Amino acid sequence: QGQLVETGGGSVQAGGSLRLSCTGYRYRTYCGAWFRQVPGKEREGVAALDSHGATDYADSVVGRFTIERDMRNNVLHLHMNNLKLEDTAMYYCAADPCGGYLQRVWDANEYDIWGQGTQVIVSS
Fold first, then answer.
1. Which terminus of the chain has fewer Cβ atoms in its 10 Å neighbourhood, N or C?
2. What percent of the chain has pLDDT over 90?
3. Per DSSP, which regions of the chain are E strands?
4. Backbone angles phi, psi at 108, to 5 degrees
């Protein structure tokens, strides 16, 4: 099934932007998502994309984050704008060979393939 590798994390001031990239996202039949996690809390889904390209976003990131797939280069991106302090977290890329869509896009157990994570720190 391959591996996913996230890059693009870093430190940014509130209001700034980052673009996360997930390489190894190879198949048109995959469902993909970005999750984030802070210590002591459960992993939280923030953006999802089904194999047809339909997207879904957590309420906390609507209008600020955009999930995008680049199938030519096998990359899943997360564009993050107007970052807030509460966006600080480890961000993970996830994929599943769903062949369509997932009924529970925010359930981490639905995804079979995960990256190792990339840290995002937003400061004031």
1. C
2. 83
3. 5-7, 10-13, 18-23, 31-37, 44-49, 55-57, 65-70, 75-80, 89-96, 113-114, 118-123
4. -60, -25
